[in-house]
Specification:
The structure is a homodimer of 184-residue chains. By secondary structure, chain A is mainly alpha-helical. Helices cover 59% and strands 7% of the residues of chain A. The first copy, chain A, contains 8 helices and 3 strands, in the order ααααβααββαα. Chain A has a 3-stranded antiparallel beta sheet with strand order 1-3-2. Chain B binds a DNA duplex (30 and 30 nucleotides) through residues 47, 50-51, 54, 80-82, 89-97, 116-120, 176-177, 184.
Chain lengths: 184, 184
DNA sequence: TGCTAGTGTTGGCGACACCAACGTTGGTGG
DNA sequence: CCACCAACGTTGGTGTCGCCAACACTAGCA
């Protein structure tokens, strides 16, 4: 468990004499307590990732969740909105609006399930598949820009560690308040 | 790239005999495209981190940014609100409201800088230092819970990789739209 | 037949990052 | 001296995001 306690603080001098904000010296401008907190690093990194994602996807007139939903439909096949939300980690409420967008764009089709009239069957259209291929390129470029300062081994290691942490908390807390996959 | 078609209700990875959503089988329920995207992993992980932070800090009647601001004041000494925001990555607008909260709680004091009447000098109070020590414990427990599935070496490696990525994008885009440190 | 549970939809809430404007103040160059 | 620009703090607003509450509808079961 964590043994490190409160680091040395109380530098009440207030004289910040550093002048060069070079890449290495940049981290020094952050409070040491925060620099060592993985949660803080993850949050701040996620902000940058979110900004990069937003820029790249809006540049092609799309959104982040478009890619997530289309990818899920392509890999797992047609799903209900609830399953879609469980797989991608979205709330059912939000999935409804997201699917509306995708339907209006012609990337998916919404049809009532004849076997279970509660459900909507969401299916990806050929146009949606073409769009997904386009977004695959966007995502690949995004990945490369996001992980730019890391080499191949480090990128794989970061993904591995993040996956471990994410799986752990997903198992504990659930993805979208419903840990059970369908298996209906 | 992938044209993997899958039937609707099928758990295609049926080879594993696991019946429950164990840690390893859980990731298989996410779209493969998303599983490999570092940005997606970071964002989802940040959501869990954010939830853990919120739970832990509200449990003691505090907030996440309380810790960040108090830590900055303790380590760098009294600062203006603008410097405070730059160090912790907050917008000046939000810092104003945050400082209001801390002032009302008695953890910091706000005084006009006699040398520069534009600035407010924010200083941590003894009560604020005591509160910071309390929050240090909360943060340490948080770190341990967040990184639970990782051993010491992996934790250090994850922090190192995240720091590299974060520094890179901070240098490129700036932390809070103002890459220049004081250098007044 | 009732009851429970899952589904889709609407609406709202709170946190967060970010931006725009305004009045105030410091510093600088004409 | 005065005009101009830059920085500061404050208010208010915007958009995203995750999440919850309620409702009507339907399926499955005792």
């Amino acid at each position: 468990m964590g043994e490190s306690r409160a680091p040395a603080g109380g530098a009440t001098t207030g004289t910040t004499d550093d002048a060069g904000p070079t890449a290495e010296g940049l981290a020094a401008s952050w409070p040491a307590r925060l620099r060592g907190l993985a949660g803080w690093l993850v949050n701040k990194t996620a902000v940058h990732s979110h900004r990069l994602n937003a820029e790249a996807f809006t540049a092609v007139g799309s959104r982040r969740f478009h890619y997530a939903l289309l990818a899920s439909l392509d890999e797992f096949g047609s799903s209900s909105q609830a399953d879609l939300g469980r797989r991608c980690g979205y709330d059912r409420s939000d999935v409804a609006a997201m699917v509306n967008e995708l339907v209006q764009a012609g990337h998916v089709e919404r049809a009532q399930d004849p076997a279970d009239r509660r459900r909507n069957i969401i299916a990806i259209t050929p146009a949606g598949r073409a769009w997904l291929a386009r977004l695959d390129v966007v995502a690949a470029d995004l990945q490369d820009a996001f992980l730019a300062p890391l080499d191949a081994r480090e990128r794989a290691e970061l993904i591995r560690l993040l996956t471990r942490v994410l799986e752990h908390h997903t198992a504990l807390h659930g993805f979208a308040r419903d840990p059970n996959p369908s298996t209906h």
